[in-house]
Design brief:
heterodimer, A: 165 residues, alpha+beta, four-stranded antiparallel β-sheet, two-stranded antiparallel sheet, 3 helices, 7 strands, 23% strand, B: 65 residues, 43% helix, elongated
């Protein structure tokens, strides 16, 4: 082992986010959907300060449980959706209402979208690796017992490693 | 065999991933992953392992002989 680097990721690639959604059998991408289903009205309770109340429920795209209704207004009786929101710095923010388990959504994506972010991190890292590794290298996805995943990039046996582009 | 491992935790704490290298000679590991690390996001911590320095020592000793 030579060095270890810890990196904080932001969501920069919608392609990788769409690929992450595709990893879930029960999620679908909703291109251009400008609202995401939630409770519908800010109750003055939970807010970490990163979202203004007037931004709640608004988005640029949405991620939903497969087959749930495509609504243009909040309906508390239906599964909530993840809002994908453009940030001024060109990155994307995920927001969801986790009250009452997001009406079934949180069991799939995680209460803080951690399962979705995990899938995104994998897809984004694979996307970047695919553009940077040269001939003679291969990428293998290795699931670990704790649910984490290692993307292992190694020189293929018997080949001459061309190194990094 | 040289290897690079991108570790994605099951529950990404603060949305972080870890990049680890194995089998590179000294600073070559830093060059190999610099572009990848920039592409992935902002580096919050970096640790050079004993092997990083051992291999540098090996190279220096070989050059001195």
């Amino acid at each position: 082992m030579s060095h270890v680097t810890r990196i904080k990721m932001k969501i920069k690639s919608l392609d990788a986010l769409k690929a992450a959604v595709a990893r879930f059998e029960n999620l679908e991408w909703r291109e251009g959907k400008k609202t995401h289903n939630w409770w519908g009205r800010f109750q003055g309770d939970y807010n970490d300060g990163t979202i203004r109340p007037d931004q709640m429920g608004k988005c640029d795209h949405a991620i939903a449980l497969t087959g749930s209704p495509w609504l243009d207004h909040a309906d508390r009786s239906q599964p909530y959706e993840v809002g994908v929101c453009a940030e001024p710095d060109g990155t994307w923010r995920l927001q969801l209402d986790f009250y009452s388990g997001g009406r079934g959504l949180c069991s799939v994506v995680g209460e803080k979208c951690q399962k979705l972010k995990h899938a995104y991190a994998l897809e984004y890292a694979k996307e970047k690796l695919s553009t940077q590794i040269g001939a003679g290298w291969r990428v293998t996805e290795v699931p670990q017992e704790d649910g984490s995943v290692n993307l292992e990039v190694s020189e293929s046996a018997g080949s001459i490693a061309a190194g990094w582009r | 065999m040289r290897k690079i491992i991108v570790h994605v935790p099951a529950d990404p704490e603060e949305d972080t991933v870890t990049v680890t290298t194995e089998g590179f000679d000294g600073p070559a590991c830093l060059e190999a992953t610099a572009e990848l690390e920039r592409a992935l996001g902002d580096t919050v911590a970096e640790e050079r392992t004993p092997e990083f320095y051992e291999r540098q020592d090996d190279i220096r000793l070989a050059q001195e002989r």
